[in-house]
């Protein structure tokens, strides 16, 4: 899937060595954000939060995607990771939506950032991650991996995946 999505978006991406794949078809308590290294065939997996608007009953499962401003929901589709910057949530990675299902990402300020509610201790206490405003939020140590390996023009792809 990572290779397919990188190839589909090759004209827009700056780098094609690593892709981030978010599988929002599984519970937020399990690692569902995968860094796929397309050069050496390895995959590393981490937890990632989804938006409040995607999980109104806060049970840890994403119920719906949205690309609507103010929805606080996560959007599905391919993104390009732009540069990192320091903003409201500290160091973050700006994202650009490449599909009609997420083309409002920049306007909605949908980014990757670190968050306390994505820490393993949150899962230990509540059985799930907290929720973002639609952003891809990771535990601070895990987010460092995104800064090092995913920012700077690489692909991030989000959807409910079915590998069955």
Low-pLDDT stretches: none
Helix-strand sequence: HEEEEEHEHEHE
- What's the gyration radius in Å? 14 Å
Gross morphology is globular
SS summary, helix count: 4
Task: Assign the structural class, choosing from mainly alpha, mainly beta, alpha/beta, alpha+beta, or little secondary structure.
Answer: alpha+beta
**Major beta sheet, strand line-up:** 3-2-1-8-4-5-6-7
Alpha-carbon distance between the termini? Answer: 14 Å
Write a structural description.
This protein is of the alpha+beta class and 164 residues long. 17% of the residues lie in helices and 28% in strands. It has helices at 2-8, 105-108, 120-126, 140-149, and strands spanning 18-23, 33-37, 43-46, 77-87, 90-97, 111-114, 136-138, 155-159. Strands 3-2-1-8-4-5-6-7 form an eight-stranded mixed sheet, with helices on both faces. Strand 6 (111-114), helix 3 (120-126) and strand 7 form a beta-alpha-beta unit. The longest helix is centred in the C-terminal third of the chain and has 10 residues, at 140-149. The radius of gyration is 14 Å and the shape is globular. The chain starts with a helix and ends in a 5-residue tail after the last strand. The relative contact order is 0.25. The model has no long low-confidence stretch (mean pLDDT 96).
């Amino acid at each position: 899937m990572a290779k397919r999505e990188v190839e589909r978006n090759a004209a827009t991406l700056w780098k094609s060595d690593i892709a981030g794949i978010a599988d929002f078809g599984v519970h937020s308590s399990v690692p569902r954000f995968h860094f796929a290294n397309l050069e050496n065939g390895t995959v590393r997996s981490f937890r990632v939060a989804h938006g409040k608007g995607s999980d109104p009953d806060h049970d840890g499962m994403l119920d719906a995607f949205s690309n609507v401003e103010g929805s606080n929901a996560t959007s599905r589709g391919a993104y390009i990771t732009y540069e990192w910057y320091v903003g409201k949530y500290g160091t973050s990675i700006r994202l650009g939506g490449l599909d009609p299902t997420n083309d409002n990402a920049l306007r909605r300020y949908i980014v990757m950032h670190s968050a306390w509610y994505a820490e393993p201790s949150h899962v230990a206490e509540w059985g799930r991650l907290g929720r973002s405003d639609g952003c891809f939020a990771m535990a601070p140590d895990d987010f460092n991996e995104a800064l090092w390996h995913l920012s700077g023009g690489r692909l991030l792809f989000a959807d409910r995946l079915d590998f069955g």
